[in-house]
Design goal:
This protein is an alpha/beta fold. It is built from twelve helices and 23 strands.
């Protein structure tokens, strides 16, 4: 296979391998001679495209020709431009299909007293403010003796926020921390504050609401003579609680899976992202939930998601999700199409529409059931949209704070990062999967070789259930996951 034409109406195809100028390829029953070298993952023009005419990929415009483009020519940043503009008005035209109901599957998870299920059984030490980062690190270090065979790990998390923040910016930090405190992958949580910060323990509790006092403990460092010794003592008590949990059979419908992509390339929208979409539809068919975020990477594909909304209420919320994020860009004087990244472009992605139409495929075809603000927990079964930026670390952490027990992260370039929940990397191509075996957990590049989507979805679903059951670990779990990334939108005093 030398190229992929994604949809019959497309005016471009994507090179699967490096193609050379002068080479002849057969497309749609006709011979086409290349007039440029076409790198793997990049686009070639299937027809002459006039200046100002839309370039079509995934059956949708990904921008317009900045000058006349000849068939066989390389299409990239040098000759097309984005069509994106600022705020738009939208009309709801429902266009969705229900997920097919499927026989249930199970995984072995940790059932919590509130009914939620975790895929890991860990103790988390969470600071309210960056001033106590060193304290929580010492508590973690000295508390390792509290580990038992039933506890998967004791982890302290660091972040630089919690003080000198104002208004909504401070509330975002508190909502995020509250989401982590409630997370079912944490059997128990110690929250450590300083005492004089804006986001102190009292303020955090207002956002957190009701909590299990046996599971969640608080320590104010300024009120303690030896906060490290006291923290270790509390973790030892929490370890006794955490040790009582054991894995048990749980329906796959209990899973909430975060969907994320980063370092995308020209194959991401052909292999890895559609694989996650196929997985998402299958999990939802078993009663499970998935969460799609990266709002700026919905720009240009937003109408597809809007028309998949279950009802007009969710449609209106999706319109607000898109336009409010554009207003966020505009407040800081940034263009709404300030994307893709240099790595994306090198991999063959040209415009934000090009990226978005590939990115949103992670959400499959099921209806959009809910739209969540940053820090809000998943409330409905099925597909939810979540307010968060495209930044890999911030978006992945946002998915975790909303309750995702696992994050599936597609990549064409590779990345080693992890966050508080298992973060599995799915490669869009076999080259990166073979070259970065210490980063990549699953290779979707085989879709370009010898696997069908049905076959690969079967394999991938089995892998995710094994990951959820603790039978395998994501590669990122072997690396450092101590740093939290929190969405910031405001002044720091």
């Amino acid at each position: 296979m030398k190229y992929v034409k994604i949809h019959s109406s497309d005016t471009v195809a994507v090179a699967v391998e490096d193609l050379k100028k002068g080479e002849s390829v057969s497309i749609d029953g006709r011979e086409l001679t290349l007039i440029d070298d076409i790198p793997a993952g990049h686009k070639l023009a299937l027809y002459d495209i006039a200046e100002g005419e839309n370039v079509i990929k995934y059956a949708y415009p990904i921008g317009h020709a900045e000058k006349n483009i000849r068939q066989g020519e390389h299409i990239h940043t040098h000759n097309i431009r984005s069509n994106l503009s600022s705020l738009l008005s939208y009309e709801y035209n429902p266009d969705f299909r229900e997920a097919e109901k499927l026989p249930p599957r199970t995984f072995r998870g940790y059932r919590r007293p509130d009914g939620k299920v975790g895929t890991r059984n860990e103790i988390w030490i969470i600071p309210t403010v960056g001033c106590v980062n060193s304290v929580v690190c010492q508590i973690e270090k000295q508390a390792q003796s509290c580990l038992t065979e039933n506890i998967d790990g004791i982890y302290a998390y660091n972040h630089p926020y919690g003080c000198s923040q104002l208004g909504g910016d401070m509330q975002m930090t508190l909502k995020y921390l509250s989401g982590l405190i409630r997370h079912p992958n944490a059997a128990a949580v110690l929250v450590v504050g300083l005492g004089c910060e804006n986001g102190n323990i009292t303020e955090l509790k207002k956002v957190l609401g009701d909590y299990d006092e046996k599971r969640v403990r608080f320590l104010n460092a300024q009120d303690s003579e030896d906060e490290i010794a006291e923290g270790v003592k509390i973790v030892k008590e929490l370890a006794e609680l955490a040790s009582k949990y054991e894995r048990e059979e749980c329906p796959a419908g209990e899973l909430i899976i975060g969907l994320k992509c980063g370092g995308s390339d020209g194959f991401s929208g052909i292999t890895a992202n559609p694989l996650l979409g196929s997985f998402s539809d299958r999990l939802i068919g078993m009663g499970g939930s998935t969460v799609l975020t990266e709002v700026p990477e919905m720009f240009g594909a937003e109408t597809i998601l809007m028309n998949r909304c279950r009802n007009s209420e969710e449609f209106d919320k999706t319109v607000d999700l898109i336009n409010d994020f554009k207003k966020y860009f505009m407040r800081y004087g940034e263009k709404v199409d300030e994307n893709p990244s240099p790595g994306n472009k090198e991999g063959g992605i040209t415009t934000l529409e090009d990226k978005s139409l590939g990115c949103t495929q992670k959400g499959g075809t099921a209806p959009v059931e809910d739209v969540l603000l940053y820090g809000e927990a998943v409330k409905k079964k099925g597909l939810s949209l979540l307010q968060a930026p495209g930044n890999d670390l911030v978006a992945s952490n946002a998915l975790a704070a909303s309750g995702a027990q696992i994050i599936l992260f597609t990549t064409g370039r590779g990345t080693p990062f992890g966050c508080p929940v298992p973060t599995a990397k799915i490669s869009s191509n076999s080259v990166i999967a073979n070259r970065k075996k210490s980063w990549i957990d699953f290779n979707a590049g085989s879709l370009l070789e010898n696997k069908t989507m049905e076959e690969l979805t079967d394999e991938f679903f089995d892998y995710v259930l094994a990951l959820a059951s603790g039978e395998v670990k994501a590669k990122a779990e072997m690396l450092d996951k101590h740093e939290l990334a929190i969405f910031k939108d405001g002044v720091t005093l």
